[in-house]
């Protein structure tokens, strides 16, 4: 009869981050991918945000949770991110002490590392916001820019699909502000 070893540590578990990932819902396959990658990149909360240009009216939270569990199992993550109910844009970007990083192809600072490095001194918890396919409405962009503690991030010279932008933004945040550098960080 085979024996099982219990309690043997195969590798050190990374500490959970305080990284919120806010996103406009996408169609099923793209949303599945987006959720899986956010889990792999260390998001602690997944928050669907209904923007003016959001193309998906209904979000299947049970499917999102199943994708969270699958991604966590695949990567050996023990702490599952919270899957929040969808909220309207205005509620999602309201007053908060978090550093809000949002992706905008019209950002004045074209170097995303420089834009994030300038915000690193705040050492605040971070939220990353990815807009819908088609981008933010002008009023939404203006509301984001009026918000304190915000970083407007360009992701290069190409317009990216929302799911690709999510992976790029989360990778940049992890590289500059997150736990990829080692040591203690704000998130």
Strand tally: 7
Number of domains: 1
Helix content: 25-40%
* Gyration radius over CA: 17 Å
The CATH homologous superfamily is called SPOUT methyltransferase, trefoil knot domain
Q: Helix-strand pattern, N to C? A: EHEHEEHEHEHEH
What class, by secondary structure content?
A: alpha/beta
Strand content: 15-25%
CATH topology name, in short, is Alpha/beta knot
Q: Which CATH class applies here?
A: Alpha Beta
Q: Could you say what the CATH architecture is?
A: 3-Layer(aba) Sandwich
Tell me about the largest β-sheet: 7 strands, parallel
Shape: globular
Describe it:
There is one protein chain. This protein starts with 18 loop residues before the first strand and ends in an 11-residue tail after the last helix. β5, α4 and β6 form a beta-alpha-beta unit. Strands 1, 2, 3, 4, 5, 6 and 7 form a seven-stranded parallel β-sheet that branches. The longest helix is centred in the middle third of the chain and has 15 residues. The model has no long low-confidence stretch (mean pLDDT 87). The protein has six helices and seven strands, in the order βαβαββαβαβαβα. It is α/β, with parallel strands linked by helices and 187 residues long.
